[in-house]
Predict the 3D structure of the following.
Amino acid sequence: MNPFSSGTRLRDMIRAIRACKTAAEERAVVRKECAAIRAAISENDQDYRHRNLAKLMFIHMLGYPTHFGQMECLKLIASADFPEKRIGYLGLMLLLDERQEVLMLVTNSLKQDLNHSNQFIVGLALCALGNICSAEMARDLAPEVERLLQSRDPNIKKKAALCSIRIIRKVPDLAENFMGPAAGLLKEKHHGVLIAGVQLCTDLCKASTEALQYLRKNCTDGSIRILRDVSNSPYAPEYDISGITDPFLHIRVLKLMRMLGQGDADASEYMNDILAQVATKTESNKNAGNAILYECVETIMGIEATSGLRVLAINILGRFLSNRDNNIRYVALNMLMKAFTVDPQAVQRHRSTILECVKDSDASIRKRALELVYLLVNETNVQPLTKELIDYLEVSEQEFKEDLTAKICSIIEKYSPDKLWYIDQMLKVLSEAGNYVKDDVWHALIVVVSNASDLQGYTVRSLYRALQSSPEQESLVRVAVWCIGEYGEMLVNNVGVLDGEEPITVTESDAVDVVEAALRHHSSDITTRAMSLISLLKLSSRFPPTTERIREIITHEKGSLLLELQQRSIEFHAIIQKHQNIKSSLLERMPVLDESTYVRKKVGSSDATFSADKTGQRVSAGTPVNIPNGVAKQQAAPLVDLLDLSSDDVPVASSSATDFLNDLLGVDLPSQSSSGVVSTGTTDLLMDLLSIGTSPVQNDLLAPDNHTSSVATSGKIPSVSSPPSVKGVALETKSPQAPGPSPVLDLLDGLSDMSFSDENPTFPSITAFQSNSLKITFTFTKQPGKPQVTQIKASFTNMSSNTYTDFLFQAAVPKFVQLHLDPASSNILSASGNGSITQTLSVTNTQHGQKALAMRIRIAYKVNNQDMLEQGQVNNFPQGL
Amino acid sequence: MGIRFVLLVNKQGQTRLAQYYEYLTLDERRALEGEIVRKCLARTEHQCSFVEHRNYKVVYRRYASLFFLVGVDNDENELAILEFIHLLVETMDRHFGNVCELDIMFHLEKAHFMLEEMVMNGCIVETNKQNILTPIQLMDKTS
């Protein structure tokens, strides 16, 4: 006898695991057991199969891998003994991972058991099928399930109904086969069948509109009758839950009625009476009753109910909201969210109660309430609501502050009546919870301040004050440091004092003090410090007497271990030391940031965060950072602005940007309309001028640049076939539409790698791979509007005199590229170039325009049953893919 | 789908029973169990029984040292799920007689059978305790 098969009993194993004091001990016990079970499996041990599987289920529950037990489940399922079969099915459901081969193997057993004479075995098979069935199994076994829906045994019927739900979820086409039987189920008496039937109908309604219409016609009466019966039914001990008969059935029927009544006035009308009855008669002192009321309210809100019924529903919610039980209040808030779209006025009435819930001690309730308050805010109530929320922000728990701050900021941004109010509220939030404020929020604040020239003095003074009291709030510090750098003289000279503003006396050295403190503060991170450095540099120009002190502070930072800070301080030091003549022009105030661009970008597209980042970078890096081309850099910020602009508006703006760039570059050009080539060229030229491509800031410039080129060329040039190096002449012949590009292109002559990324160009085919035995060519197509996606048609030609069989082509791409391989046209490649295999690859370059495509390929095939392998790398993709 | 998983953990956060109605890998399960157990067990008794986690809700209920956690879709009736948990406990009580952690540990398969009779593919099948227990009692009798 095999030494393992005796093993330990299940009980003993559980005891041993329970006795483990540490996770390591537990792992050791489990490892030993698993080894024993594996051994038993490989011995094909019959006697303890049942017990081993039970052990495996326990081990699985503890979170250890048990995949090796899957085949044992199949063996147990095939057993004739009921307990073995039972545990086999349970194991199948618990241990199965989505490995198709195991599922395929089980299909046959399931089919047999579905046709078994024993009702319990049929029930087991249905249950398993309902839990694990795949689309393929659904197709295979749907007829059996349909037949079982007509069975006389209610236990089989209910399981068949739920099994059907799984089937139509996997294969929605099968829905129509189940419509008739499903409607029939609603006429049953057995609650199990009813609840399963109702759920099946609900799912059918979701699956197809056809089914929805059919069921609306045939089931509306049925569902109303079920609800009436169950709510009027006398005491039924087996279904009774705290005095109410089967609340689960109530709830499922109400859900179904919601599906049927939604958008259908007639069906809704039928339901009015019974819904009113349920809403008024149901006991509301027990949880079960409240569950029904809750569902009933949701149904009333969902269907085309009469206004009277809606009032009834809103009143129930009002009662819920004032309930002492937190569960009830939670669902009330949840429901009010949904009710808001139907009847906002009614929800507004509960505003004060909801606001109280924001301050609740329970995180779940707070979260719901906050979402709801956010919905409730409008132009008229924004001021008092914001005040309430900000007041609460002061006392709220730490972990709630992040959510709360995000919502408050969003409310302030969306509904602020004027800039002064906006700035005031933002400052309050920043000084209260500046560490929780997202970057784009304070970026937006800076944009607003930069545009509000009459409030800049007030803002910088308020920030100065706030900084005294909350120096540890990161984003407050950043905004303050930026504003002091920009508007330092307004702080000292009290420029633009508003009515009612307290006067404040700040000396020049006070201003330098606070920025220095921010630079030195232990909690300041690299961004804040970098911003402080810029601010100091700017102050040295605003307040000449402090220059010497600032130079010392900056000198001190030259030893910083952080490269960014070190570089900045060395550069800034050089500016102070050696470039006094250009310093004042270098450190002029930032040009006004374009609000509309910023807003559009923020609202705009998926790259919202990206653009926010850019703004941030620009704010912090707006002043010159790089000495070698410092002057050119000075223009960099506005240039980026312009390029950004052009990236938002398609060709027209791009041409204006071009003009501007041309002006800048001193190129005397006739004004051009939408000359995509030129704008690309110019930006490229610009890149060159700025010698882009090394430091992080410069990379930042690169991004919008690429963006521009892709958008700008969307217009007129249909067939520039992306030559690797473009000469003016070649271009002119190929794209006669482009109006007079030669003057600029002369300039461009000699610029070697320019890439053109047209929206819908044609690309030359390439020979991707060639050896003595095999040749692969790629042809490219792109769909208009999707520059990132390229369809590659690969065709393979056999250059040898032997036929290749089992031909398999594989490709690998870098991380930024997504690759999808379609099946090849064949796996046999006939000899000597007679015929070829084609295969389509779909490639998505997520960094289109920035990185070129590259691909490694591997080709495996058999010659005379001998395995052959060839590998290669494709680097000669046409540019712009 | 309705119910996504039913989980039973003890006060120490050890899983004692778990059924999932959507496929998750072992690592995902462990991570999920760790996260929600930590969230739910940290809550006090007078806080509400619902916790939002990722894109779904967890409804939980405590019985002595055992926590029953049920993950449900966002449009599921939370109050009804509370009742469902209670029904599950009553069913187990009827079978084991005042059920405790050890009953479930040592009769894990029975606990699974009961749950299987009650929930299938994330939908409630049967709420009648007698109907739920009949197949199990029959099996006990024959063996």
